[in-house]
Specification:
It holds the Pfam family Nitrate_red_del. Keywords: Nitrate assimilation. This is Nitrate reductase molybdenum cofactor assembly chaperone. InterPro entries: DMSO/NO3_reduct_chaperone, NO3_reductase_chaperone_NarJ, TorD-like_sf. The chain is mainly alpha-helical. The protein has a single domain, classed as TorD-like (Orthogonal Bundle), CATH 1.10.3480. Helices cover about 50% and strands about 0% of the residues. It is built from 13 helices and no strands. Helix 4 runs antiparallel to helix 11. The longest helix has 17 residues. The protein is globular and about 45 Å long.
């Protein structure tokens, strides 16, 4: 897989991390366009610290150059909001939305395995997948943090790279539903991402409805960065017992992309 062209701004340009064969069904241009969409989703879902906030004009301009598509339209709707808010407002909205609401947490294995021992095994398997592709996580985020998963998908390609996204499709559907119910602009990013994946089946939608009503499996194993208690409905804030800072994964930082 070749890096994105030099015409793409540095903040969204990728380095070559692993040699992954492109699926025959995608042309090189289509593969690069898809990787760029996934990389933009990864960046826009990261904590809006000063560095990312300062790059808003670059990100907005990059989204504006995307070929017309439903995903590009959704990202444009998000950047219209993102570009016109004060940094403090962006930071507060992000923390409220993703760090204090378990139904819109960005840690994907939580939705599939909840607070059970299986989640620890799923995290280990995901980290092993990254290493097998020649990719190491050097930041403070867990390997199931959605921006990290999206970064891997952009680098490794639609087959192996996007497999974790397909595996956690139901969790992504639930996050999108929660963001929509909360009227968060971040719903547009999830809508763009879901539009890139295979359509949800009836079984998927039934499972999402059940997950929304009952929550994921529950078993106290000491791996719960989201707090304790019942699965939080939309609008309910559940402060974490041991807060973990939201960090931008180094592979997606502007410094690491130049």
């Amino acid at each position: 897989m070749s890096p994105l062209p030099a015409t793409v701004p540095a903040i969204v340009r990728t380095r070559l991390r692993a040699a992954v064969r492109r699926p025959a069904r995608l042309t090189p241009e289509e593969a690069e366009a898809r990787a760029l969409l996934l990389r933009l989703c990864s960046l826009l879902l990261q904590y809006p610290d000063g560095e990312l906030a300062a790059a808003r004009s670059v990100l907005t301009a990059t989204v504006g150059t995307l070929p017309p598509s439903p995903a590009a339209e959704q990202l444009g709707a998000f950047t219209d909001w993102f570009a016109h808010r004060q940094p403090e407002e962006l930071e507060g909205h992000y923390v409220e939305t993703f760090d204090l609401r378990r139904r819109s947490s960005l840690h994907l294995t939580y939705y599939l395995h909840g607070d059970t021992r299986r989640r620890g095994m799923a995290l280990l398997a995901l980290n092993q997948r990254y290493r097998a592709a020649g990719w190491e996580i050097d930041g403070g985020e867990l390997p199931d943090h959605l921006p990290v998963v999206l970064e891997f998908a952009a680098l490794a390609g639609p087959r192996a790279g996007e497999a974790p996204l397909r595996q956690h499709r139901r969790g992504l559907e639930l996050v999108h539903r929660a963001l929509t119910e909360a009227d968060s602009p971040y719903r547009h990013i999830l809508a763009a991402l879901l539009g890139l994946l295979p359509p949800a089946s009836e079984a998927d939608l039934r499972a999402v409805a059940e997950l929304a009503a009952q929550g994921p499996p529950d078993e106290d194993v000491g791996l719960d960065p989201y707090g304790s208690g019942e699965f939080a409905p939309p609008g309910t804030f559940v402060p974490p017992e041991q807060a973990q800072p939201t960090l931008v994964p180094p592979p997606s930082s502007p410094e690491g992309l130049r």
